[in-house]
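Provenance

Sequences were taken from public entries as deposited. Structures were produced by running a predictor on each sequence independently, with no templates supplied. The record for Nucleotidyltransferase family protein from Metabacillus herbersteinensis is shown for reference.
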Amino acid sequence: MSNLFNLNTANVPKELKLILELLKNSNHDHLRENRLELFSGIDWDLFIKQSMHHRLFPVLYSKLKKVDEHLIPTYVIQHLSQEYKRNTFKMLHLSAEMEKVSRIFTENTIRLLFLKGPVIAHDLYGDISLRTSSDLDFLIPIGELEKAESILVNLGYEKDDYIKTVLNDWTWRHHHTTYFHPQKRMKLEIHWRLNPGPGLEPSFNDLWKRKRKSKLTTYPVYLLGKEDLFLFLVSHGARHGWSRLRWLLDIHQMTEQDINWKKMNRLLKTFHFHNVGAQALVLTTELLSSKKVDAMKPLLENKRSCNLAQEAIFYLERMVNLHTDPVPEPVSRYHTRHLFSLMTARQKVLFVLSFLHPYPEDAETLPLPKQLHFLYFPLRPFIWAWGRRGRRHYPRGN
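Predicted structure for Nucleotidyltransferase family protein:
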């Protein structure tokens, strides 16, 4: 590719650089040749923390077993081994629950597409033990949400009813709701959109037409088509700043698959995700030595794509966690600016216009009877100026 692709990783911790080298080398010849440079001065406790933070410990354990044992402290291998075994059992439990949910929903005539979890681990890595998942995420038509909730409640799940809404803004500002089974310690996320809005994305019917059947389970379990899965994974990873390398490794694994990249390019442009698609491919090419996709060169070989990829290095330098509040103020400010920089011109217009739609907090600031909620539209600028000018609105969850 062009010489634009020169990411500055000088401030990325040495421990994370070693992890990147482990991920992108299958035969470990490079590791053996450069072992003094790569393994010298490693803080192995930090290495473990990085492995856990980035959710990479399963695949790292599988690779470290092949490295010279004298280069790595025994306790590091033992720790990763324990976490690897724990994750394997969890993925097996998730697989069983996934198959059960698929069967019950199908019997109740609800179509569902699994977005993450064991099906993705099996599809991308060929082994569910090599990827972590904390829950099951699946997409259904928005009109089936009430029926789906009734089914899950009957199965013992409890809804985390955190979504506040006014004038039905939940349908586009949010994209999923969460259910938790207290006995099974299992979490499910039901999506009605791939991403929080506002913004364009494929309809459920179109995604269903392009679905694939997983080879993991006996009972039919369906997942997104390859191109749709790539679009979902790059939009999800970019929304979180690629702050966990597992998401980037997923993209690397996808570049090894048989994807119709011309179709993929059209899909990214149609739904205004070409910026995040280019960012992801630059990152995987530079950090993980992913193969170069010729069909994507027109999208990739420009300064903007490289700049967006460079912006994501910020999260790798700091081991950023965007999922636990409070997020440090400097990180929060940077993340807000970064997300805006990823948007196309159309997305920026929609994003700015979305602030004119009332927020649930407006109803808390100035309570009105439900029949008068339409007044929040003309009152919105005044309420915002009065007490909410400095507040940021982030999509909750993953």
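The chain is about 55% helix and 5% strand.
The radius of gyration is 22 Å.
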